[in-house]
Amino acid sequence: MAARSTVDRRPVARVAVDGGVAMSDLTTAGAGADPAAAPQVPSTARMIDHWLGGTDHFPVDVAAARAFEGAYGPCAEIFRSLRGFLGRTVRHLGAAGVDSFLVFGAGVPTRGNVHEVAPAASVLYTDIDPVTIALGQRILAGSDRAAYTYGDATDLSTIDPALLGRYVPAWGRAPVGVVFLGLAAFLDDATLARTLDDLYAAVPAGSRLAFDFDGMELAGHPQALALMGEGFHMRDPAAFPDLLGRWRPTADGIAPVALWRPDGPPEDVPDAFHGGVAVK
Ligand SMILES: C[S@@+](CC[C@H](N)C(=O)[O-])C[C@H]1O[C@@H](n2cnc3c(N)ncnc32)[C@H](O)[C@@H]1O
Asked: Ligand 1: which of 110, 111, 186 to mutate, judged by most atoms within 8 Å of the beta carbon?
């Protein structure tokens, strides 16, 4: 298993951008920004779009991605593997009968994101970064099955109930799919546990949660870790079951994402991210 030990794909919170741009909190940098203007601060979600070969990002995101790779090493294969995990979890939920998805910390809705993997399903993407939300709304304009809106994962009341009813039609009536990928690293243990418990309470029995979290990979890469800032949370995989609370992982358990129900030989990438599916 070659390089199972690297980074974390959602590098983030603070990244020193080439060219002297100040360090910025990537998780909240979009707050208050004009979503129509090219952003001055990077977003981890749009850095991932860059690594996935997408076109929905800005020069500042590319600069931050390059700065991170300078401290850590190449990231594209790691994030391709992670996006493959997203696809397998969404297909797994679909096979269990889920056809309504609520996505938190959704990032850019392209490059194998939820509605592309499950084209017959209804999908509501949410995020807190206004620039990424505006990008997502432009990408999804004209879709009658997928939409993008503001939603703070830690407070369900921030999601427009009309959009929730329209794009997650099973909400409150039948099992739904909750996609919580790329987000745990930005929440401390208490907030993460409370957020997952609130979600558990809000969804009907039989609902499923696709989740992942950052392992300890960056502990071996202190320069890259330093770029992530204080708001970045790595976790020992042994600690995660407690954080899931009442959610019950499926028999596949919690695994390095490349090893979770792989379609074939797993990608040879570092075990930067771990995840799985859990059921109410
Ligand atoms: C690393 S990106 C993940 C994007 C996508 N889910 C993926 O896996 O490729 C993390 C995203 O979480 C968003 N985010 C951070 N804190 C959040 C919160 N409290 N609620 C919702 N989204 C949040 C950020 O704005 C960012 O777009």
From this structure: 186
pLDDT digits (tens, 9 = 90+) for 79-93: 999 999 999 999 999
If one residue of 104, 115, 128, 195 were mutated to test the ligand 1 pocket, choosing by the most ligand atoms within 8 A of its CB, it would be: 128
- How do strand 273-279 and strand 177-180 relate by DSSP bridges? unpaired
Query: Is residue 183 in contact with ligand 1, taking CB distance under 6 Å?
Result: yes
Distance 128 CA to ligand 1 centre (A): 7
Query: What is the DSSP track for the chain?
Result: -TT-----SS--SB-PBTTTBPP-BTTTTTTT--TTSPPSS--HHHHHHHHTT-S---HHHHHHHHHHHHHH---HHHHHHHHHHHHHHHHHHHHTT--EEEEES---S-SS-HHHHSTTSEEEEEES-HHHHHHHHHHHTT-SSEEEEE--TT-GGGS-HHHHHHHSTTTTTS--EEEE-S-GGGS-HHHHHHHHHHHHHHSPTT-EEEEEEE-SGGGG-HHHHHHH-TT-----GGGHHHHHTT-EE-TT-SEEGGGSS-SSSPP-----EEEEEEE-
Output the CA 44–ligand 1 centroid distance in Å: 8
pLDDT tens digits, one per residue of 133-158: 999 999 999 999 999 999 999 999 99
Answer whether residue 99 shows pLDDT above 70: yes
pTM of the predicted structure, to 2 decimals = 0.90
Strand partners, 214: 273
Mean per-residue pLDDT over the chain, rounded = 89
